[in-house]
Amino acid sequence: MTQNQKPYVIKPAEGKLGIMLVGLGAISTTFIAGIDAIRSGRTKPYGSLTQMGTIRLGKRTEYNIPKVCNFLPLAKLEDIEIAAWDIFEDDAYVAAKKAGVLDYQDLEAARPALEKIVPLRGVFDREWVKKLDGKYIKNGRTKMDLANQVMEDIKTFQKNSGCSRVVMVWCASTEVFTPIEEVHKSVKNFEKGLESNDPKIAPSMIYAYAAIKLGIPFANGAPNLSVDTPALQELANEYRAPICGKDFKTGQTLMKTILAPGLRSRLLGLSGWFSTNILGNRDGEVLDDPGSFKTKEESKLSVLDTILQPEINPDLYGNVHHKVRINYYPPRGDAKEGWDNIDIFGWMGYPMQIKVDFLCRDSILAAPLVLDLALFIDLAKRAELRGIQEWLSFYFKSPMVGEGLYPEHNLFIQEMKLKNTLRHLMGEEPITHLGTEYYNI
Ligand SMILES: NC(=O)c1ccc[n+]([C@@H]2O[C@H](COP(=O)([O-])OP(=O)(O)OC[C@H]3O[C@@H](n4cnc5c(N)ncnc54)[C@H](O)[C@@H]3O)[C@@H](O)[C@H]2O)c1
Hints:
Layout: E1 16-22, H1 26-39, H2 49-52, H3 68-71, E2 80-86, H4 92-99, H5 104-109, H6 111-115, E3 120-121, H7 143-161, E4 163-170, H8 187-195, H9 203-213, E5 218-220, H10 230-238, E6 242-244, H11 251-265, E7 269-279, H12 282-287, H13 290-308, H14 314-317, E8 321-328, E9 337-345, E10 351-359, H15 362-382, E11 387-388, H16 411-425
Helix pairs in contact: 1-4, 1-15, 7-8, 7-9, 8-10, 11-13
The chain binds nicotinamide-adenine-dinucleotide.
């Protein structure tokens, strides 16, 4: 154990933590049911780094490897209160039943906890999610009015639930792709746009604006821009709100960021990577729209380039055919299947192939990420971190980074960055894995 002074003063996790979810669909309801099941001892928090992960401290010879939740002052699961917005009126039990992720037994066991969560009316505009037509929505003369209504929702929830802190996590549908426009470039332009109903301001940006204005941390689980604009980053710095995104790293992209670093480490060349998916949940239906798919495609395609860095490895990765397809196939429901065909080459250029068939469950992979992100952005807030939290890249397909930086996609570098940030926050030495100290003879 080092004797370093703690560089950060982290306020204790006193009182309850409110987690406000935007969207009460497959992921959110699976998350809520899981929290209930863990709290009542019916299951364990599989897949959650905050609950089951460990972190080595000091030298290997010390064998000091506490659980992450024992090392850090994180909010306890018993202290979590949940609220959600949606554009359909179904409570979390009905929504979970429709999502079809959980089996009958798990659904019924969590029924009382799920039925308690009745959504708040959402901020919605069909221009941004063409495949949905929810009518349970807020009305406002301007987008600024809508943002103010979201702020009122947050304050009311915090008051009624008695939470001392609140975080917001976007678990709603993927919005249509938009590049960064003038209105997204500064707080001044953005606020003018809210007042004048600028069509380039998406509902997700309105929620994010409302959260940040109240200094509330915001995590974006979908690939749409949302908080990933200069305007909202400027606001987050000003209002001391930690922010992170985009797009939960689950399923096929998770596999990609596990496999690609291994190929690169062994200098195995890549000539092509073809990925296709079938899925039949509402997310799949939304992604059937070309606009929403484009947002997702951008997010999924970007990972290989930054891991393989073709510009510095042209012989190995200069000519890669990378294709990603998502096919909406209702019979499959939430049980997605993702196929990867990977064409690689080795010594003397001899070709080889890797085939991956991942029969995954999207929401089962995503739910623990919601938990970890909610707890970590709350920790970040209490440690007085603000703006982009790059150390949470571990959880995202398109990690947000500061201007001029490229994102780190390699899962193992992301994990090291995350754990070293946790050590740093707690005044522990970062671990470099250099190891020379063991051999000083
Ligand atoms: N499941 C995964 O592994 C995974 C991975 C990465 C990203 N994502 C993204 O997470 C999001 C949620 O996934 P899901 O499977 O739960 O989807 P889902 O379709 O089951 O749930 C989304 C919910 O959001 C609601 N919604 C849409 N627009 C809204 C708005 N403006 N305000 C409030 N509610 C709104 C919908 O009515 C729906 O109930 C999607 O954007 C998806 O692309 C999922």
